[in-house]
Amino acid sequence: MPPPPNPPAALPPWHIPNFILRVEDLDHKGASIFFENVKPSAALKLAVEASYTWLYTPLTAPTHVQSITLVLRSFEGVAYTFGSHTDKEIHFSLDYIAGSASRARDEILGVLVHEVVHCYQYNAKDTCPGGLIEGIADFVRLNAGYVPPHWRPAGGDRWDAGYDATAYFLNWIEKHCGKGTIRKLNAFMKDLKYDEKVFTAVAGDSVNKLWDLYCQQLEKRR
Fold first, then answer.
1. From which domain of life does this come (predicted)?
2. Which of these, 39, 102, 138, 158, has the minimum number of CB atoms within 10 Å of its CB?
3. Which of the listed residues 120, 155, 175 is the one where a domain comes to its end?
């Protein structure tokens, strides 16, 4: 009798960085809303796992990010991310959180997913257009299920308008060309400078032709 086959090797777990939280005004209404709706560590872990799920596989997921610091403070705007190769920092507006009280949990998690993507996505050696960078972040947010009520698929003159406009286009590409297409797009931007030909490589056609087809299909639905 032949020996039983070896069990398949277990996939490596996602690498979860160290999370650090800094709150600059505990008396701010936004701080109370934040803590009433999410647990910081769990929320950041969810955001990291969403980034990995939609942009990587367990074998390709990067492990260079060692820490993510979340700073809750009062400022105009929503949030932004910066940092070194290994240590990232996300600043999240307490004023914005306070203004999102009616749907606080989903909005907090959605913003965190978007910003954490910026900690992990490849950017073609700093040559990727900003609209595509933001579109990929919102593509992950869209697929993680934290969609604001005002988001709608929309055409227009530019595929790289960014944020939800580009996110819905990327999501259409993902469905039109097959699951994992945006993961491939991200992977292509790891070591190469940006060139629109990347869309032909991963999606089989130029980005402008894909955009035209996407807009045509939106028109038909209307």
1. Eukaryota
2. 102
3. 120
Answer yes or no: is 5 within a domain.
no
Domain-terminating residue out of 120, 144, 160: 120
Residues 176-218 pLDDT 10s: 999 999 999 999 999 999 999 999 999 999 999 999 999 999 9
My answer on whether 116 and 126 are in the same domain is no
Task: For residue range 121-149, list pLDDT tens digits in order.
Answer: 999 999 999 999 999 999 999 999 999 99
Supply 26's token pair: 């505990």
Say if CB 30 and CB 73 are below 8 A apart: no
In a domain, 6, yes or no: no
Q: Do 165 and 97 contact (CB within 8 A), yes or no?
A: no
Length of the chain: 222
pLDDT band at 154 (very low <50, low <70, confident <90, very high): confident
Total count of domains within the chain:
2
Which domain range does residue 31 map to?
A: 13-120
Which residue did the predictor score with more confidence, 3 or 90? 90
Name which of 170, 177, 103 is nearest 143 in CA terms: 170
CA distances from 85 to 35, 82, 88, 161 (A): 29, 10, 8, 27
What is the number of H-type helices and E-type strands within the chain? 9, 4
- pTM here? 0.94
Q: What is the mean pLDDT of the segment spanning 63-81? A: 98
DSSP state of 101: G
